[in-house]
Amino acid sequence: MDACSAIRYENDHSLSLHGQASMNSSLPVDSYASAATLPTAHDQRRMHVLAAARTCFARSGFHGASMQQICAEAQMSPGALYRYYPSKEAIIEAIAEEERIDAAACVAALHGEGSLVDRITAVGMEYLRQTLDPDTGGLMVEIWSESIRNTALGQRFHEIEAEVRRAFHAALLRAQEDGEIDPGIDIDVVLTVLFAIGDGLVMRLQIEDDADIETIEPYLRRVIKGLLGAP
Amino acid sequence: MDACSAIRYENDHSLSLHGQASMNSSLPVDSYASAATLPTAHDQRRMHVLAAARTCFARSGFHGASMQQICAEAQMSPGALYRYYPSKEAIIEAIAEEERIDAAACVAALHGEGSLVDRITAVGMEYLRQTLDPDTGGLMVEIWSESIRNTALGQRFHEIEAEVRRAFHAALLRAQEDGEIDPGIDIDVVLTVLFAIGDGLVMRLQIEDDADIETIEPYLRRVIKGLLGAP
């Protein structure tokens, strides 16, 4: 999963980010999103199904969760659910498509105002806030598990992350050229460490569910600053 | 899983660390380990079973893996295997006991020579080297998954980690008192971030299996230095 893919989750409910993503990025988005109109009842039902599916996948894994479980979680009959998604594979593909939209939002946030350390810290904190709920965090652990086992599903999510990583790479390279960060750092290694910190914090905040996420911000900033060699 | 529990894995094969752990820590160790003698054939067979079990748990999870699968992986008959461990629960308990020994080794390493940043970096790098193989890394993901779902098994491993965390807390407090690190940092939050970095790197190195682990050391040091506010 990309390093701030969960930013969409909250916006998914307020429906603001699909339009934003389509404005700020050249990444393809859902056909209904680019219209930037209010969602239809059909869109709302589809999002309801995806939310139920995420809950089931987080609980039982992509392989363990069944269409029956997703129906029960969504409180829909199989007939009703199949009108939106004909198979579990179609649901997973829709979740992957959401990830692509998240990736675009992440890239957009990285290109905002302020120092690179500030921007990466802000993207990171937003990522942590949005992955704090057990469904989202649990789903990410499942995606990592697929990535580690290098399944077709894992590769699908890995490609999405690669897009975010390319954007981070470009931002760091520019900051090196501008003298904003240490010109001697190996950007590839730094990104491996940076994405590891993101993954690790998401997981750790799931385990230590009494931790106050906002207390982390100054320490995340220190870590990023140290890693990038920013003054 | 504690932040350097995998240190044992390599030593498990060379059989050096059991004795070391019993010398350097007051944590209980296996009865055969404290004798610091060469392993008997029975010990070797038992370790062979545990290695096979780790492979199966990493592949299929603690719940998904069966005694039949462990027998097949160990190339032993059920009758032979049951002589060492009467149940899957007994195998898991033996793995947890190994984790306790790892925790002791981790605590011992933290109390070595050099600056705190150097010691934590060294412990961290050793942890990463030892978790690099897919069995160990995969098992850790399974343990995190149990911890997130807060199962009895997850709690068992969480207690072991808590012991390592207490040792880290004491080391950081002492370094604060000695003026070695920033006296203003909140040790609890710093440890949450530090353990997150460890978890995240273990997972990331499983996903990016072409990454050269040794290139990470200088960046891990920068991150720890920034986090602790060390000069």
Automatic annotation (TrEMBL), chains A, B:
SUPFAM superfamilies in the cross-refs: Homeodomain-like (SSF46689), Tetracyclin repressor-like, C-terminal domain (SSF48498)
DNA-binding region(s), chain positions: 66-85
PROSITE patterns named in the record: HTH_TETR_2
KW Coiled coil (keyword) present: no
Sequence intervals crossing the membrane: none
Domain HTH tetR-type: residue ranges: 43-103
InterPro entries, sorted: Homeodomain-like_sf (IPR009057), HTH-type_TetR-like_transc_reg (IPR050109), HTH_TetR (IPR001647), Tet_transcr_reg_TetR-rel_C_sf (IPR036271), TetR_C (IPR011075)
Keywords: DNA-binding, Transcription, Transcription regulation
UniProt xrefs under PANTHER family: HTH-TYPE TRANSCRIPTIONAL REGULATOR PKSA (PTHR30055:SF226), HTH-TYPE TRANSCRIPTIONAL REGULATOR RUTR (PTHR30055)
Protein name: TetR family transcriptional regulator
